[in-house]
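RECORD TYPE: inverse folding
INPUT: C-alpha cells
STRUCTURE:
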C-alpha cells in the first residue's frame, strides 16, 4: 500500500463501515469534507475525495436503520491510497460480532496513513487493534466507563467532543464525528475554510462545552455492578446531606480501607468522585427541568454554595450552570 504521508493534492478520507453503523457517524464527516470541495475556487482541484471501506468481503453494509451503504472498497483491497482513516461507530453490542480481520487491517494500515481516528464506539475497535495504548481518548459519553474498564491502560476523557493524541483522533458520541471532521479540515486548510463549511452546515465550528452536558456523569444504572448500585441507591435521597466514606462503608458492614478498594475496582473511581458525580447529575437535572435558583440547587445537592456548584459544572461540563440552563431551554 502506498504511503500517503508524503502525498499532496487530493486527500482521500476513508471511513471504515461496520455492520449496524449509525448513519450520522458516516454522513456527518462525509458532508464536512465534501462541502469543503464546494467552497474551493473553481480553478483549483477538489481537496478531498471520500471512500467507504467495508469491513467484510461484501461491499454492501447495512446501517442500524436498515439502509444499505455501498462501499467502494473492502478491507481486503490493498491498492487504495488513504490520507485519513476513520472508524465509524456501531451498536456496542455488535462489537463481539466484528470481523476479526478488521484488527489486522487496522494494524497494517496505521503505519501507511497520515491520520487515523474513530467516531463514537469506533474507539473500541481501535483499542482492540492495539492502536490506543497509553493515549488519552474519548468515545460516546454513555460508554466511556466501559471503555476505561475494558482497556485500563487508556486515559479516557468523556467530556471533549474529540481528542488528538500522538496522531490518533477519537471523537465522542455520534454527532461528535462532525466536530472532529471540522477540526481535521481546519488542520488541513485553515480556519477560514473550516468556518465557511460550518456556517454552510449550520453548525458551530467549535461547539461550546463538551459532550458530558448531554449525558449523566454516572454510568446508566443498568450498566453498574450490584455493589455500585447498592451505593447509588443508598445515596440518591441523601445528596443534600453531609456524606462520608465512613458512612458508606458502615452501611455495607465493611472497613473503610476494604470498601475503598472494592469500590475503585467495581466502579473505576473513588467513592468521593462517585458522590461528586451523583451530585452533579442531580444538579444538572434541577438546572435543566426547574426554575429553581442556583443557590437553592447548590444547597439541595450538597455543594454548600453557588461557587462550588459553578466550579463543578466547569470541571465536568466546561460550561457554567447559567450557560447550561440557557442551552437546555433554547434561550441562547
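DESIGNED SEQUENCE:
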Amino acid at each position: 500500500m502506498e504511503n500517503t504521508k508524503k502525498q499532496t493534492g487530493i486527500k482521500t478520507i476513508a471511513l471504515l463501515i461496520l455492520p449496524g453503523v449509525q448513519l450520522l457517524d458516516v454522513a456527518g464527516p462525509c458532508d464536512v469534507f465534501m462541502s469543503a470541495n464546494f467552497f474551493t475556487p473553481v480553478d483549483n482541484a477538489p481537496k478531498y475525495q471520500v471512500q467507504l471501506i467495508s469491513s467484510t468481503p461484501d461491499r454492501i453494509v447495512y446501517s442500524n436503520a436498515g439502509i444499505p451503504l455501498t462501499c467502494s472498497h473492502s478491507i481486503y483491497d490493498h491498492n487504495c491510497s488513504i490520507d485519513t482513516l476513520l472508524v465509524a461507530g456501531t451498536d456496542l453490542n455488535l462489537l463481539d460480532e466484528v470481523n476479526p480481520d478488521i484488527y489486522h487491517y487496522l494494524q497494517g494500515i496505521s503505519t501507511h496513513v497520515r491520520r487515523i481516528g474513530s467516531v463514537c464506539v469506533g474507539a473500541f475497535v481501535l483499542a482492540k487493534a492495539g492502536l490506543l495504548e497509553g493515549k488519552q481518548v474519548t468515545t460516546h459519553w454513555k460508554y466511556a466507563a466501559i471503555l476505561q474498564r475494558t482497556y485500563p491502560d487508556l486515559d479516557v476523557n468523556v467530556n471533549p467532543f474529540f481528542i488528538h493524541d500522538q496522531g490518533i483522533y477519537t471523537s465522542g458520541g455520534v454527532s461528535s464525528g462532525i466536530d472532529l471532521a471540522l477540526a481535521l479540515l481546519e488542520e488541513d486548510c485553515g480556519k477560514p475554510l473550516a468556518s465557511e463549511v460550518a456556517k454552510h452546515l449550520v453548525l458551530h465550528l467549535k461547539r461550546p462545552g463538551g459532550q458530558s452536558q448531554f449525558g449523566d456523569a454516572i454510568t446508566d444504572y443498568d450498566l453498574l455492578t450490584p455493589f455500585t448500585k447498592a451505593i447509588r441507591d443508598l445515596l440518591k435521597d441523601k445528596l443534600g446531606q453531609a456524606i462520608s466514606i465512613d458512612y458508606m462503608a458502615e452501611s455495607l458492614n465493611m472497613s473503610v480501607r476494604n470498601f475503598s478498594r472494592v469500590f475503585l475496582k467495581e466502579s473505576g473511581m473513588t467513592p468521593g468522585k462517585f458522590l461528586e458525580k451523583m451530585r452533579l447529575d442531580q444538579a444538572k437535572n434541577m438546572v435543566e427541568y426547574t426554575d429553581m435558583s442556583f443557590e437553592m440547587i447548590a444547597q439541595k445537592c450538597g455543594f454548600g454554595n453557588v461557587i462550588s456548584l459553578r466550579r463543578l459544572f466547569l470541571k465536568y461540563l466546561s460550561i457554567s450552570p447559567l450557560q447550561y440552563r440557557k442551552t437546555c431551554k433554547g434561550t441562547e
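NOTES: The two ends are 49 Å apart (CA to CA).
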